[in-house]
Amino acid sequence: MSVSGAQNRERIGELFKLNYHWLCARVRSRMDCPHGAEDIAAETFARILTLPDPGSFREPRALLTTIAQRLMYEGWRRRDLERAYLQTMQNIPEQFQPAPEEQLMLIESLLAIDQLLDGLTSQAKAVFLLNQIEGLTYTRICEHLGISLGTVHTYMAQALRCCYQVFES
């Protein structure tokens, strides 16, 4: 390992020693589960390791807080999507429900779509999903959501732009 690599490891070790318990306490104040807070704090430091120069930030606590908040939001978003999916599955007869492995793949797909459309309004996401997943025409979406045809076109354009940006990068 190079000298800079060894120095980075030492910096991160020091950063961890100085801030892990602080970060756990900070995250715990926003969560109900102390073990979840420890998981978020650990994942935060794992993400720090993936940065190009992980020991070179000026305000380490601000960076740690930002990463931890993003991880909490991702967790809450996942929980909300899973809850909505499971509620929907309750309305489907048992013989038509997918196997547990398929359910996990569906939830993962929903999360990927949600991340893909991140930044859109909930109504723009609804337009995209109604068209792409439910197969509704623009006219039916207008009726379903009570919005104009022009608004549906605008929202679809925004959603498709998000998709293209992901595929271009």
Biggest beta sheet attributes = none
Envelope shape: elongated
Secondary structure class reads mainly alpha
Average of per-residue pLDDT values: 87
- How much strand? under 5%
CA radius of gyration is 21 Å
Distance between the termini: 31 Å
Spans of 5+ residues with little confidence (pLDDT < 50)? none
Order of secondary-structure elements: HHHHHHH
* Structural domain tally: 2
Residues in helices, as a percent range: over 70%
Number of beta strands: 0
Q: How many helical elements?
A: 7
What does this molecule look like?
This protein has 169 residues and is an all-alpha fold. It has 2 domains: 1-98, no CATH class; 117-169, Arc Repressor Mutant, subunit A, CATH 1.10.10. It has 7 helices and no strands. The longest helix is centred in the middle third of the chain and has 31 residues, at 60-90. It starts with a helix and ends with a helix. The mean pLDDT is 87. Belongs to the sigma-70 factor family. ECF subfamily. GO terms for molecular function: DNA binding; sigma factor activity. Residues 111-163 form the RNA polymerase sigma factor 70 region 4 type domain. This is Sigma-70 family RNA polymerase sigma factor. Pfam families: Sigma70_r2, Sigma70_r4_2.
